[in-house]
Design goal:
The chain is an all-alpha fold. The chain has helices at 3-10, 16-26, 32-39, 51-69, 73-85, 87-95, 97-103, 108-120.
Length: 139
């Protein structure tokens, strides 16, 4: 799958609804308000992007921070600081973990499958889980 196809496949997950679902599942209920406050530091407009693209980019960063935080507020705060310096580092850690750790580009489908499964975690999204070789953004 090409990079454009991969982004098109991930695009539907970059929503406030998905962020709220992952936030509630990643953190214990007493930590959700603190995590939400930390995530607010990632809100901002993306230059040269329309409102929807800017909101999706923000949700993408928030989801990435939630994923790599593994439910730990300290880790979440550290990764948000990383994103404020260079958001590509956060996105890489969340979406391209195997590829960036030297396992090569051949693992990109596995990274994609892991990311989508994580985004789709929950009964409402169970139909979205697919085998890596069946990923098709047009389906």
């Amino acid at each position: 799958m090409g990079e454009a196809d991969e982004l098109a496949y991930k695009w539907p997950w970059w929503t406030t609804e998905t962020v709220n679902e992952r936030l509630a599942s990643a953190f214990a209920a007493p930590d959700v308000p603190a995590a939400s406050t930390l995530l607010a530091a990632l809100v901002g407009e993306v230059p040269e992007a329309d409102l929807e693209a800017s909101e999706r980019a923000t949700c993408r960063l928030m989801l990435a921070a939630l994923k790599v935080s593994e439910g730990d507020l300290t880790r979440l705060a550290l990764w948000i600081e990383v994103a404020r310096t260079d958001p590509r580092d956060l996105i890489g850690a969340a979406e391209y973990r195997r590829e960036l750790t030297g396992e090569g580009e051949s693992v990109r489908d596995a990274d994609l499958a892991e990311y989508v499964a994580w985004c789709a975690h929950g009964p409402r999204h169970s139909e979205a889980l697919m085998a890596p070789d069946s990923l098709d953004p047009m389906v």
